[in-house]
Amino acid sequence: MEPVKGGIRFAPSVNQDEVEALAALMTFKCALVETPFGGSKGGLSIDPRDWDEHELEQITRRFAYELAKRDLIHPSQNVPAPDMGTGEREMAWIADQYARMNTTDINSRACVTGKPLNAGGIAGRVEATGRGVQYALQEFFRHPEDVKKAGLEGTLDGKVIIVQGLGNVGYHAAKFLSEEDGAKITAIIERDGALVNKDGLNIDGVRDWIAQHGGVKGCPDGTYVEDGSALLEEPCDVLIPAALEGVINLENAERVKAKLIIEAANGPITAGADEILNKRGTVIIPDLYANAGGVTVSYFEWVKNLSHIRFGRMEKRQEEAQHMMLVTELERLSADKGLGWELSENFKKKYLEGAGELQLVRSGLDDTMRTSYQDMREVWHSNDKVENLRIAAYLVSIGRVAASYRAKGL
Ligand SMILES: NC(=O)c1ccc[n+]([C@@H]2O[C@H](COP(=O)([O-])OP(=O)(O)OC[C@H]3O[C@@H](n4cnc5c(N)ncnc54)[C@H](O)[C@@H]3O)[C@@H](O)[C@H]2O)c1
């Protein structure tokens, strides 16, 4: 189904098989969260850290040129997005390259998503995948029956979490879960090792340290462990692999003690490891659902670009008007009853802040993550043969893909 959608990855490991597998995963991911796209994926087998910014721009623009020449990026054919090793900056270069080659296409901005706000992006896109991981976990913990299946209880508050990869997805997931849900991120596994702190790490502190020093080693916030991957095997409530594929495999699966694993990365658990973990009763929230926040908000961005409006403007005005009426009413009541209340300017400002594009994006994403989880769990609990959430996720999405083929008479 066109347009198709998927991330563009810059990493030395990129190869044809990986790109094809990830494109197939995108098809099912889009179907699961009901975004109207087929799946695609792109990649360059380069390590972005080997190139300076100017060189990277030249590489990205040339790549975009070759794709656009063949209609392999186009608002109605293929709409890429960021993935490992790429971000807003690369998407802005791609959008600009496409626009230069298609000067009369008024929809050119919709040729790629994940762009910076000042280049046609949407509020909340950078954080979207990590935010989606947070919303997915929040929804999981709203279902005590599911929480019990993982051998857990209660809410996210106080839960011990280990995160692998403090990049775009891992950083935002870790930050929101620790700052907003009361979870404790006790270990972060990065390329050069892991950082451990039983009381919970300061995510922004660790992120700043990595930005300055290129790794977690020496960060004063926790204890450095050279063999980072050993931390995948530490006991914890929730494990969030948010870096590479295949990190939980036949080598280490027997030793992984997490009760719940949420696949923030694509394919972090190999098929063999999946079988072992399922037999042991580990609950796995599968990638095609867990990291669908990015594609969901990308869809909002694409719609925004095609409709040529700035989302939130109408809603903000309406909400502002309603809030103003309430504030005025409160002040009138107070004066009538001689209560002498005075609403502080700070209160009024805070009260009026609850509207706009970011709020619209967040509530749309939250709704998507809630609904998709509920669709999956309904199938999961409907039949003993549906042993886990991954099978349920595929049943839901394959059913939707099949229905769309049938509708077309294929
Ligand atoms: N960015 C998105 O919107 C998005 C959407 C869906 C899925 N994903 C998936 O999430 C995963 C991460 O993507 P990202 O965009 O956060 O990438 P990123 O490049 O921003 O971050 C990856 C992080 O993993 C770390 N890392 C690399 N090798 C490692 C290793 N061997 N051990 C531990 N850490 C290592 C890197 O240092 C980096 O901090 C990928 O599987 C990607 O396909 C990303």
UniProtKB/TrEMBL annotation:
<feature type="domain" description="Glutamate/phenylalanine/leucine/valine/L-tryptophan dehydrogenase C-terminal">
    <location>
        <begin position="122"/>
        <end position="409"/>
    </location>
</feature>
<dbReference type="InterPro" id="IPR046346">
    <property type="entry name" value="Aminoacid_DH-like_N_sf"/>
</dbReference>
<dbReference type="InterPro" id="IPR006096">
    <property type="entry name" value="Glu/Leu/Phe/Val/Trp_DH_C"/>
</dbReference>
<dbReference type="GO" id="GO:0006538">
    <property type="term" value="P:L-glutamate catabolic process"/>
</dbReference>
<dbReference type="Pfam" id="PF02812">
    <property type="entry name" value="ELFV_dehydrog_N"/>
</dbReference>
<protein>
    <recommendedName>
        <fullName>Glutamate dehydrogenase</fullName>
    </recommendedName>
</protein>
<feature type="active site" description="Proton donor">
    <location>
        <position position="41"/>
    </location>
</feature>
<feature type="binding site">
    <location>
        <position position="129"/>
    </location>
    <ligand>
        <name>NAD(+)</name>
    </ligand>
</feature>
<dbReference type="InterPro" id="IPR036291">
    <property type="entry name" value="NAD(P)-bd_dom_sf"/>
</dbReference>
<dbReference type="GO" id="GO:0004352">
    <property type="term" value="F:glutamate dehydrogenase (NAD+) activity"/>
</dbReference>
<dbReference type="InterPro" id="IPR014362">
    <property type="entry name" value="Glu_DH"/>
</dbReference>
<keyword id="KW-0547">Nucleotide-binding</keyword>
<feature type="site" description="Important for catalysis">
    <location>
        <position position="83"/>
    </location>
</feature>
<dbReference type="GO" id="GO:0000166">
    <property type="term" value="F:nucleotide binding"/>
</dbReference>
<dbReference type="Pfam" id="PF00208">
    <property type="entry name" value="ELFV_dehydrog"/>
</dbReference>
<dbReference type="InterPro" id="IPR033922">
    <property type="entry name" value="NAD_bind_Glu_DH"/>
</dbReference>
<dbReference type="InterPro" id="IPR006097">
    <property type="entry name" value="Glu/Leu/Phe/Val/Trp_DH_dimer"/>
</dbReference>
<feature type="binding site">
    <location>
        <position position="298"/>
    </location>
    <ligand>
        <name>substrate</name>
    </ligand>
</feature>
<comment type="similarity">
    <text>Belongs to the Glu/Leu/Phe/Val dehydrogenases family.</text>
</comment>
<dbReference type="InterPro" id="IPR006095">
    <property type="entry name" value="Glu/Leu/Phe/Val/Trp_DH"/>
</dbReference>
<feature type="binding site">
    <location>
        <position position="5"/>
    </location>
    <ligand>
        <name>substrate</name>
    </ligand>
</feature>
<keyword id="KW-0560">Oxidoreductase</keyword>
<keyword id="KW-0520">NAD</keyword>
<feature type="binding site">
    <location>
        <position position="29"/>
    </location>
    <ligand>
        <name>substrate</name>
    </ligand>
</feature>
<feature type="binding site">
    <location>
        <position position="168"/>
    </location>
    <ligand>
        <name>NAD(+)</name>
    </ligand>
</feature>
